[in-house]
Amino acid sequence: MIEFAGETFESTEAIQKRFESIRDTAPLKEPLQGTEHKMVMKLLQMHPRYKEKIGPGISALTVDYHPEFKTTRVFTIVRIDKLKEDFSFQKPWRKLQATLAVPRTKQQPGDTTKSPVSDPAPEQEQNTLSAEKAAWIAKLESRVTAAENALSGIRKVIAEFKE
């Protein structure tokens, strides 16, 4: 069981499904409230461009349609300067998922309490490897985002030059 943002989940997959459910069913342009707001805020905080995304501060978190892909629902930050920023669910999710790794426990014969495993089990080593892999992926995604931003800037200059 994983405690996250005031709710208990069976697995990280269950948390991911909850995020997807919020994104897919929340009323459009309505501020998220309660646990939904807490969950999406925690997700946003893991975004590689978190500080850039929130700018001077957050007024609300909502769900809206992507500005380019008009039928795709996305989480949106409504900033205090009235600007809106959508953000990728997948980029911060991978990073968040790595932080939610659940430590394994083993039970001694006749013992009704659980104690942490002192020697890493193969599953723990795999979880550690998965966490390292997720961190590596997050770093790569951050670099890809930076490259995409640079390319976007170049495209704007080219478009202005053509005018």
Class per helix and strand makeup: alpha+beta
Radius of gyration: 20 Å
N- to C-terminal distance: 58 Å
Number of helices: 5
CATH topology of the largest domain: Nuclear Transport Factor 2, Chain: A
Which band does the percent of strand residues land in? 15-25%
Largest sheet: 3 strands, antiparallel
Average pLDDT across residues? 79
* CATH C-level name of the largest domain: Alpha Beta
CATH architecture field of the largest domain:
Roll
Whole-number tally of structural domains? 2
What would you say about this model in short?
This protein has 163 residues and is of the alpha+beta class. It contains 5 helices and 7 strands. The strands form 3 sheets. The chain has a 3-stranded antiparallel β-sheet with strand order 3-4-5, with helices on one face. The protein has a two-stranded antiparallel sheet with strand order 1-2. A two-stranded antiparallel sheet has the order 6-7.
